[in-house]
Amino acid sequence: MERPGVPRRLGYALGVRLPARFNDWALHDATSKHWRARYVLQRSAGILPLCAVWLLLPGSIWLRLSLVLMAALVAYFYSCAYMEESIEHRLGRQGFPHGTGRRIRAEAAEAENADATARYLARYRTPPSS
Q: What are the transmembrane regions (predicted)?
């Protein structure tokens, strides 16, 4: 799997489509174990520069800090509220069919939980022995 360099990753975080040779990496980015944390960090690439600019506005420091806090909270809230849709859109932009990320994450979760489910069924769903 070829990984993009820092400038391409920054562009990817801001919504730029990667070249096709990075499709495996983009799929991994959207379906890995820590995909939610990666998503939030990528959204920070767009939110933090705006917050830095707002800190430079004239006014009292408390007013500027409250503006930055409110804006960041709203931005992260909406960003996280539409996280799955955004990831699916990003994968679609890379050329994957809609629902690919959701399907791969569901398959991984099912495989991860299969052993726990089997232990649960063996312990609690078998008829009691007489």
A: 40-57, 63-83
